[in-house]
Write a structure and sequence with these properties.
The complex is a heterodimer of chains A (about 190) and B (about 625). With about 190 residues, chain A is mainly α. Chain A is built from five helices and no strands. Chain A is elongated. Classes of the chains: A mainly alpha (about 190), B mainly alpha (about 625). Chains A and B meet through helix 1 and helix 4 of A and helix 8, helix 9 and helix 10 of B.
């Protein structure tokens, strides 16, 4: 019986993991569309961004890059059956994710209150700045929920197959969200002027 | 694993959730079902319901076009404030056109078509127990259902449904106060479409993943039926293009409700200058048509796949040019991403850019023609059985040719500037993607009805349905070409107000009566469909003597599709009328060792062991001939 169960899990989990990769494609297309929209907008109307990005975004980039490392360490711990370590690194990743979220919001605060760059602006390239970061934060929320789900599974002693599966699902998504942020940040840096 | 499964298949086809016993309640079996066959039926019935609604809407605006000066007191009784004094309200006319287009393109021909047949056929034809993620599959249907309810609910708000056309171009759609149809109705349209896109993405992700990961033993990509190829490539198109529409819609929502100006500039509304500046409505068109053009292939490709399958089965011949069919589908998929600009020739785009889009557009004619010629060559000297499904499949080929030819006109920037937004365009797309896709869908319904409900549909009613619909579709859309060439613009409430177009009134009346006849003919289908579900003739396991895998599954639907082991596949799906075999079809599950008399050397192209055995067998055959 146990043997059957294991085989079956392997059979049905791989396609689900593939689903996650496909979802990442859709997400990628979404951000590609937004940034292409930016290019069309700026090119068509000669309305540049003209905003020097607040340094908060530099710190948040460092934080999210670091969270990818901790998540990788959590994955490695899970594979080596060190569950205590896995949980610790997952919590660290979660905390860094929340930190990233907070710094982004702080970045918005700096933009709006200190630099007077508003979401509602006749120059829509500045609105794009908020759309990019806002839509990315939605993905961050989804990623944090996935990490919490992995933690929940880990505390409820799910079979190792499931644990690794959840670990992998959240890893794929979280690293992707990280890479997307770096893409958006570099894109914005190149278009500051 | 498989041998164990025979003894205890209860374990095999469970999802890996906690419960190991399987008790279907009414809710889990018919409502929140995770079984792909039930979800397919849910999609089909919702799709048909939406199609009937959208068809009735079109009859309403056709009546207005035919009798712009008459009053119909009945209309006021039915529609109330939308038809004051028995005449359609002009803004409501625009809403009718908008919702007719939206429902037909998205709800019927995207969700109703892909949702039904991808769900039904992908697992059954590739040999899988269910979709990659049955739960997400179920969510996909319920998001679609929610989207449908929200879309219909917009008829019950004060100012009526969205009225900016199914393409919802800003600024009209971005300014809630611009007209009645830009208010709450537009908001509901956007919410509904967000649900719809979520549904579509969840479905598409599942279809791609199932085709790539869950094929049965022996089923390599080049042994898949063309229907599965078409659903697969359609799903890829959807997964790559729908997110772009989300991006466009998100920005539109910000413009509408938050006051940004992505799409808005220099607006004067009711004599008041609005604060928006710097936005570009063309940006929306780029984002919209980057989805919108692949969308028309999302609509037609499943219909093409279904027709390829139906035509091959009912011609009792292998499909002509199987590989060419697949490559042309791949070609259409790829090209569809680089042609969106041909919808925007009159936006003032750089003529050089227009030229580029013109060339890419015209190149699509090549794979399309390959498909058409292959269908015709399959029919050529076939042993044709004119089942209703076959008639509808041939109908698709007919509409695809007559509608496709005008596509070559419209793809030329120089001609399009003249024909843009005239009835010529209406005629073109209603033939090439509207009628063609709906005929493909109906072919699928007639062909796979026995697989879905275990019963056969009535053939005579099917013939009646086909002939009236086919003739009336041409009577409706063919005259529109001439109206368009004369410059009659689409979406006008009363174009006869212009003296130049007055003479087209009689044609409009004719078209309306043809449309009403076609609508009445659908009763034959609806009666046939509903009656056959409950009282139709019981179907045998393989009613069309077809080779594909779905007909090896038992007629009674079981969770997991096949009792015991999933069958193994040995050959391609088009072994019809193979010389030397005693029946005119060989199931995909029949190994070559059982069909020695009909094997050919090229059956063993990538199988040297098999070829060896075949040569051995041929030699012994020859020597025994000599003995005789």
């Amino acid at each position: 019986m146990a043997q059957i169960q294991q085989d079956k899990d392997r059979l049905s989990l791989a396609p689900k993991k593939f689903n996650m990769w496909l979802f990442i494609f859709t997400s990628f297309m979404f951000f590609a569309a937004l940034t292409s929209g930016f290019i069309v907008y700026v090119g068509g109307k000669t309305h540049g961004l003209n905003v020097i990005l607040p340094s908060a975004f530099r710190y948040s980039t460092a934080v999210i890059a670091f969270s990818s490392i901790t998540l990788f360490l959590a994955s490695r711990a899970a594979k080596r059956l060190q569950f205590g370590k896995q949980r610790l690194f997952l919590w660290l990743t979660f905390a860094l994710g929340v930190g990233f979220f907070a710094i982004q919001i702080y970045g918005w605060y700096i933009l709006a209150y200190k630099m007077e760059v508003y979401f509602i602006d006749p120059n829509a390239s500045r609105s794009f700045l908020y759309v990019f970061t806002g839509m990315h934060l939605l993905h961050i929320i989804a990623g944090l929920l996935l990490i919490l789900n992995t933690l929940w599974g880990s505390y409820h002693n799910k079979p190792q197959v499931i644990n690794l599966y959840k670990m992998e699902m959240s890893s794929i998504f979280w690293h992707f969200v990280d890479i997307i942020w770096i893409y958006l940040y570099v894109f914005l840096l190149l278009n500051q002027y | 694993m498989s041998t164990l499964a025979v003894h205890d298949h209860g374990v095999v086809h469970h999802d890996h959730d906690q419960e190991h016993h399987h008790t279907d309640t009414f809710i889990t079996k018919y409502v929140f079902s995770q079984d792909h066959k039930m979800i397919a039926k849910q999609f089909l019935i919702t799709g048909i319901t939406m199609a009937v609604i959208a068809m009735l809407l079109s009859i309403l605006f056709r009546i207005q076009l035919a009798y712009p000066d008459k009053t119909f007191p009945l209309m006021e009784t039915l529609l109330g404030r939308f038809a004051p004094n028995g005449r359609l309200d002009p803004e409501f006319y625009l809403s009718l056109v908008t919702i007719h287009g939206t429902i037909m393109v998205f709800f019927v021909l995207t969700a109703g078509l892909s949702g039904t047949f991808s769900n039904l056929l992908i697992p059954l034809q590739v040999g899988a127990r269910d979709m990659a993620s049955p739960f997400i599959n179920m969510l996909s249907y319920w998001f679609f259902f929610t989207a449908s309810v929200i879309m219909i609910s917009s008829f019950f708000v004060q100012k009526g449904p969205a009225g900016a056309g199914w393409t919802i171009y800003p600024p009209l759609s971005a300014l809630p106060k611009a007209m009645g149809g830009s208010g709450l109705g537009m908001t509901l349209w956007l919410i509904s479409m967000v649900c719809f896109i979520a549904s579509s993405l969840m479905g598409g992700i599942n279809y791609v993943s199932t085709v790539l990961n869950m094929r049965t033993k022996g089923m390599d990509l080049w042994k898949m039926p063309l229907s599965v190829w078409a659903f697969f490539l359609t799903a890829i198109l959807g997964v790559l293009s729908f997110p772009v529409l989300v991006a466009g819609v998100v920005l539109l929502i910000f413009d509408r409700s938050f006051g940004t100006s992505f799409y808005l500039s220099d607006i004067v509304l009711n004599g008041k200058i609005m604060p928006f500046e710097g936005g570009s409505p063309i940006l929306f068109q780029h984002l919209f048509w980057f989805l919108g053009h692949p969308e028309v292939y999302i609509v037609i490709m499943p219909a093409m796949g279904i027709s390829s399958e139906v035509i091959a089965v009912n011609s009792r011949k292998p499909i002509f040019g199987y590989h060419a069919m697949v490559y042309s589908l791949i070609g259409i998929t790829t090209l569809s991403f680089i042609v969106w600009g041909h919808h925007m020739f009159v936006t003032g785009m750089n003529p050089f850019l227009g030229g580029v889009f013109m060339i890419t557009t015209l190149i699509i004619a090549v794979p399309s023609a390959v498909k058409t010629f292959n269908w015709l060559a399959t029919l050529w000297r076939g042993n044709i059985r004119f089942t209703p499904a076959m008639l509808f499949a041939i109908g698709l080929v007919s509409f695809f040719i007559s509608g496709g030819l005008t596509g070559i006109f419209l793809g030329n920037a120089a001609l399009d500037i003249n024909l843009h937004d005239t009835y010529f365009v209406v005629a073109h797309f209603h033939l090439v993607m509207g009628s063609a896709a709906i005929f493909g869908m109906l072919a699928g319904v007639y062909h796979w009805f026995p697989k879905m409900f275990g019963r056969l549909m009535d053939e005579k009613l099917g013939y009646l349905h086909f002939w009236i619909t086919f003739i009336c579709a041409y009577l409706v859309f063919f005259p529109m070409h001439f109206m368009g060439l004369d410059g009659v613009p689409r979406r006008y409430y009363a174009m006869t107000e212009f003296p130049a177009f007055n003479r087209w009134l009689s044609v409009n009346t004719f078209i309306t009566w043809a449309a009403i006849t076609a609508a009445v003919a659908q009763i034959a289908f609806l009666y046939n469909f509903i009656h056959s579900i409950f009282w139709g003739k019981k179907s045998p396991q393989n009613p069309w003597n077809s080779t594909t895998l779905e007909w090896t599954a038992p007629v009674e639907h079981i969770h997991g599709n096949w009792p015991g082991e999933i069958p193994t596949v040995y050959r391609w799906p088009y072994d019809y009328s193979k010389p030397g075999h005693d029946t005119d079809f060989i199931l995909q599950t029949t190994p070559f060792s059982e069909t020695m008399s009909s094997n050919l050397p090229h059956d063993f192209e990538d199988n040297p062991v098999g070829l060896e055995q075949y040569n051995q067998w041929a030699k012994t055959q020859r020597s025994s001939e000599e003995v005789k």
